Structure formats: structure tokens, C-alpha cells
Amino acid sequence: MENNRPLLELINLKKYFDVSGGSFFKKEKKYLTAVDDVSFEIYKGETFGLVGESGCGKSTLGRCIVRLYEPTGGNIIYDGEDITRISQKEMLNYRKRLQMIFQDPYASLNTRLTVQEIVGEGIETHKLYTGKEKQDKIYELLTTVGLKKEHANRYPHEFSGGQRQRIGIARSLAVEPDLVVCDEPISALDVSIQAQVVNMLEDLQDNMGLTYLFIAHDLSMVKHISDRIGVMYLGKMMEITTSKELYKNPLHPYTQALLSSIPIPDPKVRTSKKRIILQGDVKSPINPPEGCRFNSRCRYVQDICREKTPELREIEPGHFVACHLV
Ligand SMILES: Nc1ncnc2c1ncn2[C@@H]1O[C@H](COP(=O)(O)OP(=O)(O)O)[C@@H](O)[C@H]1O
Ligand SMILES: [Mg+2]
Fold this sequence. Notes:
By secondary structure, the protein is α/β, with parallel strands linked by helices. The protein has a domain at about 250-325. The protein is built from eleven helices and twelve strands. The strands form two sheets. An eight-stranded mixed beta sheet has the order 6-7-8-3-9-10-12-11, with helices on both faces. A hairpin with a 2-residue loop joins strand 11 and strand 12 (about 320). The protein is globular. The structure holds adenosine-5'-diphosphate (ADP) and magnesium ion. The site of adenosine-5'-diphosphate (ADP) has 12 residues, from strand 2 and helix 1.
């Protein structure tokens, strides 16, 4: 895998939100560092899982990649081209190749459009098919995601949550993308249908040669689907390695805590594994001081963790950790 050129490369990506407030006299700027200096790459055909607690910057990162947000700093290299600062017009070409599936399948669908119009929008924008070909393509997409031809003229409110997510998936696949940012695509769905949708995403990946950035808030969801996993904490990447290695040999204290909170079905294994309860407050991402962002909750915290921000370092081949103590 490493011999190929990455399909997507993020270099020191930053997204800061200005939260100074409206006061004219306030000179001091306040920034919320939602994504702070994040670097990693995704290879073609790979699924890169991105995990971390709610608010750690996963969606912001995903939105920067598809340029729904303008990055504050760093670079986004897509298939060898720097797309960080290209114009919206130039971006149109990449919009086709880079798609996003959103967490809330209802909020992300235009309720006044029929399924046919929703799925067909991208086909029109990118002038991929017209007339009967376009119609056939829409029917084909609906069947691909487990819906029916007859659903084409209905509206989003007539569907269940799982079906709406299927519509959202059909919409993003309509333009035949290379990379799909899946932002917690199953979190809002009933547990009973989560596996169905994940299995479908995996089949689609095999059949269409897709590359995924798969975002989730806990490790149980990304375990099976991901080739490699990145663990984020308060805007920073804490650990990156293969899915297998992360479960076998988690090195960052935060990853260890996240892993220990996954329910284990086997009672024998359960008693031998102790759950790590995270103590302490989550730090604020607004004007964060130097030091490790996890230091307020880390069991092993030392002075250096409060003084210096740890770099993400390659500890073993392909295994990266940002921790002074590893
Ligand atoms: N448009 C915005 N303006 C200001 N702050 C934002 C905005 N979007 C997200 N944030 C903040 O950025 C941080 C990361 O949010 P988000 O990327 O949604 O996290 P996640 O997807 O991991 O739950 C949070 O502190 C959130 O409140
Ligand atoms: Mg999110």
C-alpha cells in the first residue's frame, strides 16, 4: 500500500473558528481550534477510520476535505494536486470525485425534492447523463442501495431513517466519486439496521473501487470496516496505525481508554479486562495552551505533558503516536 501515491494527503491541516464575539472593544481574538495541525494520508481503495469523542473535530476535518469549510492552514493534496486554495469553479471537478455522506440523513436531504430529483442533482450538475440514460442511472442507483424504482417519485419524509440514509448514499454515488467521507453514517440509525448499512457500504466499496474516510465516535463501529484508524482528541491526532495493531497494541493512553470502554460480549474476557474510566475535565479547544491536550485526563501525566505539545512520531513502522511517554 505504502508504495502507491496516496489518494488524499493532509499536511498540517488547521481549521480555527473565530469565537471572539461581537464586542468592538475586545482586541484579543479567541479561536476555537477545531482541527489543529493534522497530517495523514489515505491510499486508494483503503478505509481510514477516524474516531474520537463528540466535539473533537471529526466533522470539521471531513468538511474541510470536501471544501464545505475553508481550512485555516495546511494543505489538502488530492491525487497529487494541491486543492486547498483552488477556486469554487475549479473545485467543481473535485466535487465530483470527493463526496460526503452525513450523519443526519433527514437534515441533509432537501425535503421539497423527490428522491429522483435528489439523486439526479449531481448527475445534472456534472452533465453526466441526460434523458433516458439519466432516468436509468437513477433507477440503477436506487436498486444498488436497496431501494426500489417505485421510490423515485416519493419525498424524504415518506421513508424510515435507514431508507433516508440509503437515499443520501445514492446521491453521493450518483457522480461516481473516488473518495467518500462517511461522517457517522450509521450513528443516527436503529442498532438493528446499522450492520445492514455498513455491509452495504463495504459491498459498494468493493464493486465501485471506492476509498472511504469513515468517521465514528467510538471504536466498536470502525473496527471491522477500517484498514487503518486515526484517533483524534480535541483537534489533534493522537495515534494512527492499522486497525489490527490498534486493537492489539494501543499505545496512547487515550486510545487505551477508548478501547477499554467497548463492551465485550464474552464474560470471561470481560473480567480480565479492566475498564479505564477517564477522570478530569475535557480541556477547552479555545486558545489552548502548550502541552498535550489530553493531560487533564491522563493517568500517566508528567510535567513535560503540561509544557510541551507532543509531536506525532512513528514509533514502529506505520504506527504513529503523539505522547511524550511512549
Ligand atoms: N461552524 C462552527 N463555528 C464555531 N465552532 C464550531 C463550528 N463547527 C464546529 N465547531 C466546534 O468545533 C469543534 C469540533 O466540532 P466537530 O467537528 O463537529 O466535532 P465532531 O464531529 O468530532 O463531534 C467543537 O468544539 C464545535 O463546537
Ligand atoms: Mg461530527
